[in-house]
Design brief:
There is one protein chain. Helix content is about 35%, strand content about 15%. The chain is an alpha/beta fold. It has a seven-stranded parallel sheet, sandwiched between helices. The two termini are about 40 Å apart. This is Onanonoxo-7-onima-8-eninoihtemlysoneda. InterPro entries: Aminotrans_3 (IPR005814), Aminotrans_3_PPA_site (IPR049704), DTB_synth_BioD (IPR004472), P-loop_NTPase (IPR027417), PyrdxlP-dep_Trfase (IPR015424), PyrdxlP-dep_Trfase_major (IPR015421). It is found in: Mitochondrion.
């Protein structure tokens, strides 16, 4: 991941094009650094062309009288003077022994490893320059463009501008391409061509962006006589890098040093500034008093944060032994940290995915934000059509309503359901809609933190406030978990009492069979569920509670309530009963196209859109809702956006000649074009992932065949987490139960103080945050191969971990190893 050292100031050199003088100006920087008394490390990761023209040799030769201070290195060298990806391919084709072209990971790891090794030898302030090849989008060995290939390292950069005809455009285009990927551009350097005078325009352009532009005269043309050429070249470098130290090049050096110092100082000050000014969500500030408790995230890429660890003074201990850790290079002030909660469940494709960033720019550049009532723009229209006609609304939804986030999307869904119920009841009974309406749901539900969403959940004392007025009734649901390698359905006491043997736990044949709803609907337990729900609804109808107007479910998994994996059979039976039972106050529709009994809302903010490896939960449950809400994965974790889908019969409840009967709900950023465009890009990428070899391999590990259709119940359930790992953890002494489904792994720790009163999961896993060195001194799967820690969140005595939909298998296996190691160490420790 990002590499930052106190005594090694690194800058990566990018060019706005080929033949813009990248090596000439880099050589000037190297020479000036050495002349200033600094040791210098020069790295040319990839070189193509004859050895006589090799940049690493040329930079060393041009270092002048301070050559002894300079060390130069090239990692991948090819004789063919073509693009690196083509040179690598041709070298492979022409080689007697076929060589594998390095992957992006292998390439970045090689660069990072060299940088770390250089840092290990530094005892005084040292400058390092990493020079790229060609323009910013020139391919690396694998064919990936340089901007994307180098991005995991996140090195501060110097852009060499183009002084030729058309160079203004290519320089600005390169700068913007770098910005789209988050690069820090500290300076722009270019030749002072007196005819095109590009430096004049670019100085003003970049000056407005507080980026200094430095220009120097171009070098003399090469002379045919080698000794004469050498003399002219030396005279040129003496003119732009004079011994007096008074030149623009030395000014640039000072500026780059200041940028390096400021970056470290700012990172070092951020914990205290955060403690002084920020009010965090879901955090008891009384528990966060030390600067060391603040996780400072400098950048993020893929599944990893790059966090500041400037207080780190000792090498990390080994992960699995008490013996001293092997000797390691000086630690970077930044280290990778696996994003173990997928950043509150938002990440679908990892952080800073370039496709999503470009989608955002595409819509921002075309629209910004535009008014939406009685209007349409392509990103919103195409997204609505995609969700209704092809996505989770296929076959039942007719309308898509846009809002800002999951909580507001649920507010919209509740308004839709209550109006639909009240309108039908009033029309049937000849009265006005009633206000004493409540929600039917499950204990442990969470639908967001806005007041209406909170009122749709029971008051647990956790997600609440002084205005919280819980309206409704909530069933205590049966749950599914893996214990000691066996799949068990746990029944709450009220349901267990209705079974023949009164047992609280029902062992099922397998995880797959537990989620085969169609078969289980014929089981004795389904009959017990049906009877229990009917009886409970009848008691509610006969009592003095609120009139139940809608059923709201988090299908399959209730996330914030504690990663509660609800028995899907119970949810299916509950849906069937409320749609057909005479226990409901609603008058049932005889039309198959109308909602019946109670409007059913699926809150799929957390579980939807492949979070569980399923495109939607509808297929597995074998039934569709009347309203569903989607967010989080919808935009790949880049911007907030929510969509509430509704059936036509729900939509028609708001139709009349009076505006006051309309759904008068909206947000300033409704159908935000940027969010809609990102959502469309995300859904397209996820759809391709669902057909990828990586997903096929994950299904095979769970003995689940490739889906023959979109009827997911035909192929069973599976996870990106390894089934053997899940089995082993479920048998540990300190683990009560485990569940894995899609990207989600949930581990419940044995603790008498269960629920949110427990701190056992957090305390048990605290050491997992620390980056540890791998056994055998092998590279970790984190970007750059650095040891990584794991950022995690807990829900009382439940620890959960979450992957992106494209997390590499080797990363998942490494996280499993870390989790197992910590749990095993705790399990074997004496009480």
């Amino acid at each position: 991941m990002s590499l930052l050292f106190k005594n090694l100031r690194i800058h990566q050199i990018f060019g706005a094009n080929t033949d813009v003088g990248k090596t000439v100006l880099t050589s000037a920087l190297v020479r000036a650094s050495a002349a200033s008394g600094h040791n210098v490390q020069y790295l040319k990761p990839v070189s193509t062309g004859p050895m006589s023209d090799a940049d690493d040799e040329r930079v060393l030769a041009l270092a002048g009288s301070h050559k002894n201070r300079v060390q130069s290195k090239c990692l991948f060298r090819f004789d063919d003077p073509v693009s690196p990806h083509l040179a690598a391919r041709r070298a492979n084709e022409n080689s007697i022994t076929q060589r594998v072209v390095p992957t992006d990971d292998a390439f970045v790891n090689a660069v990072a490893s060299h940088i770390r090794n250089c840092a290990a030898t530094v005892n005084s302030p040292t400058h390092m320059y990493v020079e790229t090849a060609g323009g910013v989008h020139s391919p690396t060995l694998s064919g990936t463009t340089q901007l994307d290939s180098y991005r995991p390292l996140f090195l501060p950069t110097v852009l060499i501008g183009d002084s030729n005809l058309g160079g203004i455009s290519s320089t600005i285009a390169s700068y913007e391409a770098m910005l789209l990927r988050g690069y820090i551009i500290d300076a722009v350097l270019l030749f002072r061509d007196e005819y095109y005078r590009n430096w004049e325009y670019l100085s003003g352009y970049f000056g407005d962006r507080e980026i200094p532009v430095m220009s120097v005269p171009p070098p003399p043309a090469r002379h045919s006589d080698r000794s004469e050429d050498a003399m002219l070249t030396e005279n040129y470098y003496q003119s732009i890098v004079p011994g007096s130290g008074a030149s623009p090049i030395f000014d640039v050096l000072g500026h780059l040093d200041e940028c390096h110092t400021r970056r470290i100082e700012e990172l070092d000050s951020m914990p205290r500034r955060a403690l002084d000014t920020i009010w965090w969500p879901f955090v008891q500030h009384g528990h966060v008093k030390r600067e060391a408790d603040v996780n400072i995230i400098d950048s993020a890429w893929g599944d990893f944060f790059s966090i500041y660890n400037g207080r780190k003074s000792q090498q990390p201990a080994s992960a699995s032994t008490s013996s001293p850790a092997p000797s390691l290079p000086a630690p970077s002030l930044l280290e990778p940290q696996f994003d173990g909660s997928a950043s509150w469940w938002t990440q679908a494709l990892g952080h800073a995915h370039p496709n999503l960033t470009l989608a955002a720019a595409r819509a921002a550049g075309r629209y910004g934000h535009v008014m939406f009532p009685e209007a349409a723009h392509l990103p919103a229209l195409k997204l609505a059509e995609q969700l209704v006609q092809e996505g989770p609304g296929k076959g039942w939804a007719s309308r898509a309503f846009f809002s800002d986030d999951g909580s507001t999307g649920m507010e919209v869904a509740i308004k839709m359901a209550l109006r639909a119920f009240a309108t039908r009841e009033a029309g049937t009974l000849g009265g006005t809609p009633r206000k004493d309406l409540g929600i039917l749901g499950l204990k442990g539900s969470y639908h967001g933190d806005t007041i209406g969403a909170m009122d749709a959940c029971e008051d647990t004392g956790v997600y609440t406030c002084e205005w919280h007025d819980a309206k409704g009734f909530w069933f205590d649901p049966p749950t599914v978990a893996i214990r000691n390698g066996r799949t068990v359905v746990s029944l709450p006491p009220a349901i267990a009492a209705e079974t023949e043997d009164g047992a609280a736990d029902v062992e099922t044949v397998s995880l797959s069979s537990t989620y085969n709803i169609e078969e289980r609907l014929q089981s004795p337990l389904a009959a017990v569920y049906h009877k229990y729900v009917e009886h409970t609804l009848q008691k509610l109808k006969d009592g003095n509670g609120p009139t139940i107007a809608a059923l709201i479910l988090e299908p399959l998994v209730m996330g914030a309530g504690g990663m509660i994996f609800v028995d899907p059979l119970f949810q299916r039976v509950l849906i069937d009963v409320v749609r057909s039972s005479s226990a409901s106050d609603a008058v049932h529709s005889s039309s198959p196209s109308e909602w019946s009994g109670l409007p059913v809302i699926f809150d799929e903010v957390f579980v939807g859109l492949y979070r569980l490896g399923l495109p939607t939960t509808h297929h597995l449950l074998g039934t569709t809702p009347d309203i569903s809400v989607h967010a989080k994965i919808l935009t790949g974790g880049l911007v907030p956006l929510a969509v509430t889908l509704a059936s036509d019969s729900i939509y028609r409840a708001f139709l009349s000649d009076s505006k006051t009967d309309a759904l008068l709900h909206g947000h300033s950023y409704t159908a935000y074009p940027v969010g809609c465009e990102i959502a469309r890009e995300t859904l397209g990428l996820v759809d391709r992932l669902a057909r990828s070899d990586a997903w096929t391999a994950a299904r095979e590990r769970w003995n689940v065949p490739e889906p023959a259709s979109d009827r997911v119940r035909e192929v069973g359930v599976w996870s990106f987490w390894d089934p053997e790992f899940v089995n082993v953890v479920s048998r540990m002494e300190n683990v009560a139960e485990v569940m894995a489904f899609g990207t989600v792994l949930s581990i419940k720790i044995k603790d008498d103080a269960a629920g949110y009163q427990s701190h056992s999961a957090r305390a048990l896993l605290e050491s997992i945050r620390t980056a540890v060195h791998n056994e055998g001194d092998t590279l970790s799967p984190a970007p750059g191969g650095s040891p990584f820690g794991i950022h995690y969140r807990t829900l009382g005595n439940v620890a959960y971990f979450m992957l992106s939909l494209n997390t590499p298998a080797n990363v998942a296996r490494a996280v499993e190893e870390r989790v197992w190691t910590v749990l095993n160490r705790s399990s074997s420790s004496p009480a």
